TrEMBL record:
Organism: uncultured bacterium fosmid pJB190D12_contig I
Entry protein name: ABC transporter domain-containing protein
GO molecular function, one term: ATP binding
PANTHER family: ALIPHATIC SULFONATES IMPORT ATP-BINDING PROTEIN SSUB 2 (PTHR42788:SF19), TAURINE IMPORT ATP-BINDING PROTEIN-RELATED (PTHR42788)
The ABC transporter domain, residue ranges: 7-97
Keywords attached to this entry: Transport
Lineage: Bacteria, environmental samples
Domain of life the protein comes from: Bacteria
InterPro entries: ABC_transporter-like_ATP-bd, ABC_transporter-like_CS, ABC_transporter_ATP-bind, P-loop_NTPase
Keyword Transport: yes
Length: 191
């Protein structure tokens, strides 16, 4: 079976709801997995893994097993695994949902820093209105049965963002609009 085109497969990366790390493998091996699957030469892959781990502040944990890391660190390892392929689009399916608010906000800030440094596009799925508004340039509210776009809210706040934005009246106004759209979608779906 021929290998997929490495350049084509590197355009897209996915971060799951849970870290989905191989428990028997160390963090470096977990992060290197997509490069191994693409047939990347070992020396090149090891350099990319070191860079990806440094990018998410896990460079001192390459030889640790997932069970030795906190939940937030495991998620950062999962993000490093996605970024090691240098994607142009990063799909993230509620990656911070299981984390406490403090860790979630810190990882939101780290994700923004990575996005600004690397310039990849992010499609981020979340059930948290505040997280959606904070991370986004645009929030798309979806309804179920059938799946459809209910509303689209532009977030015109400048970058970088921080606690000043999180506590601003502009943020509250945007969060209120998204909350109303989510409530309307839930009400329509319940019928």
């Amino acid at each position: 079976m021929p290998r997929p085109d490495a350049d084509r497969s590197r355009r897209l990366a996915y971060v799951f709801q849970s870290p989905t790390l191989m428990p028997w493998a160390d963090i470096a091996t977990n992060v290197r997995l997509p490069l191994d699957l693409a047939g990347t030469p070992r020396a090149e892959a090891d350099g990319a893994v070191a860079d990806a781990l440094a990018l998410v502040a896990l460079d001192g944990f390459a030889r640790h097993r997932p069970r030795e890391l906190s939940g937030g660190m495991q998620m950062r390892a999962s993000i490093a695994r996605a970024l090691v392929t240098q994607p142009s689009l990063l799909l993230m399916d509620e990656p911070f949902a299981a984390l406490d608010d403090f860790t979630r906000q810190r990882l939101d800030d780290e994700l923004i820093a990575l996005w600004r440094a690397r310039g990849f596009a992010v499609m981020f799925v979340t059930h948290s209105v505040t997280e959606a508004v904070y991370l986004s340039t645009r929030v798309v509210v979806m309804g179920a049965r059938p799946g459809r776009v209910v509303d689209e809210v532009e977030v015109p706040a400048p970058w970088p963002r921080g606690d000043d934005f999180r506590t601003s009246t502009g943020f509250a106004t945007l969060a209120r609009r998204v909350t109303k759209a989510v409530a309307a979608a839930a009400s329509a779906d319940a019928r």
